[in-house]
Amino acid sequence: MVSGPENPSPHIPPCAEITGMGWAAPGVASGTAVVCNALSVFPIATPLSYASHRARFMHSVRTSFPRPTCFRHSGSGGNEPDECRQRKRPENQGGNRLIVTEYVQISIETLHTFLSRVFVARGFNAADASFIADTLIDADRRGISSHGVQRLAMYDHKLRHGMIDPNAHATVVSDVKACAVLDGHSGMGQLISRDAMELAISKAQNHGIGIVAVRDSNHFGTAGFYARMAADQGLIGLASTNSNPLTVPTHAGLPALGSNPIAFAVGQGDDQLVYDAATSTVSLGKIEVLVKLGQPIEGDWAVDGQGLINHDSADVMDNIKATPRIGGLTPLGGAGETNAGYKGYGLALMVETFTGILSGGLLSLDMRGQHICHCFAAISLESFGGAPLVGSRVAELSRRLRSMPSVDGHDVLVPGDKENTAFRINTTTVTVDEATFRQLAKIGERTGIAAPPAIALDEYR
């Protein structure tokens, strides 16, 4: 059950604590209460904990200039403030102005049907279309909105323009004992990656380890999805990919590496440990979401062409889309050497080696929108005491870490905890931002398929 005003999370203060601060937007007498309750009821699609959302909201309210609150649900009519009807890119995204974004909830069942039908309309068979839909919904259920249904617009564009071949299947380039290289022939990244990880799992079961590099594929969604495929079968799973040039090397001003994520999974069930993160400070999807929401970049995630930090999400995206590209994402650790950004740069190079170099495919530096490379690995635990023993030790380590005292009021977690919690909550619906919701409607019109409706909540009627 989703936490709400009458069923609050034990870690989230009641809405009264927020509304009692005395802030009110002009013309919206209870705007704070509306958004407060919204943050409680809506499982907002982000890896951030709900408590973090509320804390960030409280901070924003305290430091913001008053502005009308924009929050709509299905059937909300047209009486919202003018600036809510027509959002413009903020002149100064780096300020403290509060922007409250509209979200809608969609039935998972209805959304899955819609996504499957769209992919069938684009040339996939029913089984493959259903699997692709599964991967997108899985991301949204886990709170990874950057790689959920908001990616449908990108996939639809590439399918319509022949950049993804719905009929392509991976073929073997080389296969020697525990290792193999596959060619994806510009197929759908999720399908190519599923087959590659299944091959890696088979090799691990026969040889103790399996490593499969892939070339000429496409965006594959969340790397963690494939790492979990191996972990669910009692193995250690690893997945990585390169991408278009997005990340700026230390001391440079131009992008040369992808976001190059690394995913690792071990254990099963509630105690499964899943690490899935870009080697850039954030993935590009996080910037895309901020642009949709009209929000600035809070951290030092990106730089301009002179290597200076850029907090304007729309400007960062414009620079990344420019020809040639200008600036880009910072590596883990940030720009320069002060916070050891060269370590993130080095990790990105490691991923580039496993993906682009081992597969014989394109490097991020040479990529222009397609022909992406991946690498998948599965490791048998039989030589290390077996999956049950390793899993129990992972669970015990996680328990000890979670039991550590907090110094800032936030629980000590292990990788995968937030996503697993969101997954357990989001059993019947997922939440998407209104910009993505409009994109679904547009794709529905284009394909002649009815887009999923928003679910209205009684609390906002």
UniProtKB/TrEMBL annotation:
Molecular-function annotations in GO: L-malate dehydrogenase (NAD+) activity
Its EC number(s): 1.1.1.37
Uppermost EC category: oxidoreductase
Keywords for this protein: Oxidoreductase
Compositional bias ranges of the Basic and acidic residues kind: 82-91
Residue ranges that the Swiss-Prot or TrEMBL entry lists as coiled coil: none
InterPro entries: Mal/L-sulf/L-lact_DH-like_ah, Mal/L-sulf/L-lact_DH-like_NADP, Mal/L-sulfo/L-lacto_DH-like_sf, Malate/L-lactate_DH-like
Membrane-traversing stretches: none
Annotated spans, Disordered: 68-91
UniProt record similarity statement: Belongs to the LDH2/MDH2 oxidoreductase family.
Protein name: Malate/L-lactate dehydrogenase
Organism this protein belongs to: Bifidobacterium reuteri DSM 23975
